[in-house]
Each structure stands twice: as structure tokens, then as C-alpha cells.
């Protein structure tokens, strides 16, 4: 009889998650990098948060401001007045001079106005009171349905669950747990976000997690050859410094 038609490749798009905003094109974790990400077709923006000395959550990645601003010192040792005065753009390129280290509240207000979804990383260990302040900031903007919280720190995720059980949570891992599905159940995770290197050891875990209703967003991947591998494994999304390129790659498939 007639030859069977060749199986059509499964056209599964990867959710585009912009790592620290569009961090290859603009200074990371600023309102401008978030806006570039949005315009690039990112569905989610990943940002990091940690508190100032006076307990105000700020959007910044490193433990100190040295690399990404014109100031110096640990974020947790600087007052909000000091952080507000820093230039977070010039280090990247002179054209970004004047970009600020945003407060989480300012970043959320921007998201509320301009749209998009936020994958908010609680960076480093936080106390229950510090997590409560983050949750309160999210609540005050009334955009909780557009926010997912992630952390390497399970204790922070437990605080989020206690304080705001309806806020979706993701665990960040550099390596796979022995039983990721059990970990996801125990923490009530919506997503299990493992590094590209960590995942390569046991790729079958992706199907197990997805069958259990848990998303898998892999970080931080900027290479189209790796996007192809990950799409084949059935991962949900990719956290990338190059959201425009990933959106274009999705569209071309
Ligand atoms: O979202 C994953 C990734 O952001 C975790 O690593 O150091 O960039 O926060 P890092
Ligand atoms: Ca991060």
C-alpha cells in the first residue's frame, strides 16, 4: 500500500523567559532591560530580589552592588537612600547612564502598567519577615496572577506557601534531586527549574515532572543547538539572556 506519511515533528514552542530582563542587550535587572525583554517577545521576565539594610526589597542579582553599579558594598549593608542614588546602567554602556536599581515595588508597578509576567527569584536566604515584605509588595500591585516566585532556598519557598499559598512557586536547582517529583510534591511546586548542566545527567526526569503537572524551565541557555535539544526533551521553557533570539527561533520552527 501507500507509504505511511513521515511523522510530523512536534512543533513545541519553548516559553521565553528573559534572564534578568534582556540582559545581553541592556543592563540586567533594570526597568530598561525588562522593557527590552517585553518588546522582544518574552512571555516572562526573570528578576532577582534582595533587601536593603532598611528592609526594602530591591531588584539586583549579586550580593554586592560592585559589578552592576557605580557604588560598592553588600546590598544588605546599604540603605534604600544609598541604593536609590546608584547608577545601574553606565557599567553596561554609556547610553544606559541613569538607569536605577529598581525597588521591587517600582518594578511591579511597571509590570502592572506595561504588562508581562514576572519570575521573581528570592536571591539567597531570606527571613520570614523579608519574604512577607516581598509578598506584600506583590499583593499591593494586584498582579499576583502574573507572578511566580522561585528560589534556590527551600525555606524561602515554604514561607511563601505559608504567607500566600496561591502564589505559584518554583525551585531552582543546579543538580537534579534523586526524586524531583517527590520534592515538587513536598514543596507544592508549579515548576522545577534546573540548570542545563544539571539536567543532562537524567533527561527522562523532564517527562516525569511534566506528567506530574510540574513545569520545567531550564537555565541559562543562549545557544540554539541547546534549545533544539531541550524542545526535544519536552521542557516547558528556557531562561535566556537572549529572549529576542529565542522568540525568533520559536517562530521559525
Ligand atoms: O533563573 C535561573 C537563574 O537566574 C539562576 O541563576 O545566578 O542567574 O540567579 P542566577
Ligand atoms: Ca536569577
Automatic annotation (TrEMBL):
GO terms for biological process: lipid metabolic process. GO terms for molecular function: phosphoric diester hydrolase activity. SUPFAM superfamilies: PLC-like phosphodiesterases. Residues 14-250 form the GP-PDE domain. It comes from the Bacteria. Keywords: Signal. PANTHER family: GLYCEROPHOSPHODIESTER PHOSPHODIESTERASE, CYTOPLASMIC (PTHR46211:SF1), GLYCEROPHOSPHORYL DIESTER PHOSPHODIESTERASE (PTHR46211). This is Glycerophosphodiester phosphodiesterase. It comes from Streptomyces termitum.
Amino acid at each position: 500500500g501507500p507509504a505511511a506519511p513521515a511523522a510530523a515533528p512536534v512543533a513545541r514552542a519553548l516559553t521565553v523567559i528573559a534572564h534578568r530582563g534582556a540582559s545581553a542587550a541592556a543592563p540586567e535587572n533594570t526597568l530598561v532591560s525588562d522593557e527590552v525583554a517585553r518588546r522582544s517577545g518574552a512571555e516572562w521576565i526573570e528578576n532577582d530580589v534582595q533587601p536593603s539594610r532598611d528592609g526594602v526589597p530591591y531588584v539586583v542579582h549579586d550580593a554586592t552592588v560592585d559589578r552592576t553599579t557605580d557604588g560598592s558594598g553588600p546590598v544588605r549593608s546599604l540603605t534604600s537612600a544609598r541604593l536609590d542614588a546608584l547608577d545601574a546602567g553606565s557599567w553596561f554602556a554609556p547610553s544606559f547612564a541613569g538607569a536605577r536599581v529598581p525597588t521591587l515595588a517600582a518594578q511591579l508597578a511597571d509590570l502592572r502598567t506595561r504588562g508581562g509576567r514576572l519570575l521573581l527569584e528570592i536571591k539567597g536566604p531570606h527571613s520570614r519577615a523579608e519574604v512577607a515584605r516581598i509578598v506584600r509588595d506583590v499583593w499591593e500591585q494586584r498582579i499576583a496572577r502574573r507572578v511566580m516566585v522561585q528560589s534556590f532556598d527551600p525555606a524561602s519557598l515554604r514561607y511563601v506557601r505559608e504567607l500566600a499559598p496561591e502564589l505559584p512557586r518554583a525551585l531552582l536547582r543546579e543538580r537534579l534531586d534523586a526524586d524531583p517529583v517527590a520534592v515538587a510534591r513536598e514543596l507544592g511546586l508549579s515548576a522545577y527549574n534546573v540548570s542545563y548542566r544539571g539536567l543532562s545527567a537524567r533527561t527522562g526526569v523532564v517527562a516525569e515532572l511534566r506528567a506530574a503537572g510540574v513545569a520545567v524551565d531550564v537555565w541559562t541557555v543562549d545557544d540554539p543547538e541547546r534549545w533544539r535539544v531541550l524542545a526535544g526533551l519536552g521542557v516547558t521553557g528556557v531562561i535566556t539572556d537572549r529572549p529576542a533570539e529565542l522568540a525568533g527561533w520559536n517562530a521559525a520552527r
